[in-house]
Amino acid sequence: MLVLLPPSETKAPGGDGAPLDLAALSTPELTPVRTELAEALVKLAGDVPAARTALGLSPAQDAEIERNAVLFDSPTMPALERYTGVLYDALDVRSLTRAQRARADRRLAVGSALFGLVRGADAIPAYRLSAGAALPGRPTLRAVWRPALGPVLAAVDDLVVDLRSGSYAALAPAPGAVTVDVLSERPDGTRAVVSHFNKAHKGRVARLLATTTGEPGDVVRLRALLRRAGLHVEHDGGTKLTLVVPADAVTR
After folding, report:
1. What digits encode the pLDDT tens for the residues 97-107?
2. Between the CA of residue 140 and those of 71, 83, 137, 167, 212, what are the distances in Å?
């Protein structure tokens, strides 16, 4: 099973790993594109006004540009510890047992605008590049990544659960992947799409899938696994699951 997660704009600072070694990251066939983008990001950091425009940053966020400037010299840490925010708080990898963490590192991967795809244990520095960024004089990140990342995802033989947000899923599709929508249900039975806290619920799903000893091979077995864990999951056919949460649980 492969669970695809979105990255986060916020990153944990620091780290105690050696500087970035692109050749050491998993999925080495992505190295040429990673190298091209990383070098472009470092070069862009030398022109702060241009970097602000390209990355959608304000002057108050110039520290993000400084991070990019030292991309190849900064300390690294495992990807699952580098990314922060609502989803990763719910995933909470630091609380996992050794065996659970090994499964998480094996099953979880993060879709990244800079690296394309990183596994949980891949050592990466802090950086700033979102899927919607427009690097000067270069094609869109979607145009850059789709020819390289698309075949990688298409070649995955295991069940793929795609929890990426729309902009990252657009970088390259994962054919046949199971997707999960999150809806809140009010006491009167009406439902609404969960926006911000969608990330928290997907983080909990990711934690469950990362730690379970089960290995579902299709969407029906995946639904059964989630239901056994106490989640209200609906499946109307196809590869989409709907996670329904009580309205009063949306903010928890």
Report:
1. 999 999 999 99
2. 21, 23, 10, 12, 37
The Cα 84–Cα 110 span in angstroms is 12
Is residue 235 within a helix (H) or strand (E), and if so which, with residue range?
A: strand 233-235
In this prediction, residue 18 carries a pLDDT of 98
Q: Left if phi > 0, otherwise alpha if psi is -120 to 50, otherwise beta: which for 116?
A: left
184-224 tens-digit pLDDT: 988 888 888 877 678 999 999 999 999 999 899 999 999 99
> Can you say whether residue 108 is alpha, beta or left, with left for phi > 0 and alpha for psi between -120 and 50 degrees?
beta
Phi/psi at 91 (nearest 5 deg)?
A: -65, -45
Closest-CA residue to 82 (of 37, 122, 27, 28): 122
The pTM of the full predicted model, rounded to 2 decimals, is: 0.94
Q: What is the spatial distance between Cα 52 and Cα 44, in angstroms, rounded to a whole number?
A: 9
Give the pair of three-digit tokens for residue 234.
Answer: 């609906």
DSSP string, 49-112: HHHHHHHT--GGGHHHHHHHHTTTTS-BEEHHHHB-SHHHHHH-GGGS-HHHHHHHHHHEEEEE
Contacts of 155 (CB under 8 A, 6+ apart): none
DSSP 8-state secondary structure symbol assigned to residue 132: T
Q: Whole-angstrom Cα distance, residue 144 to residue 111?
A: 14
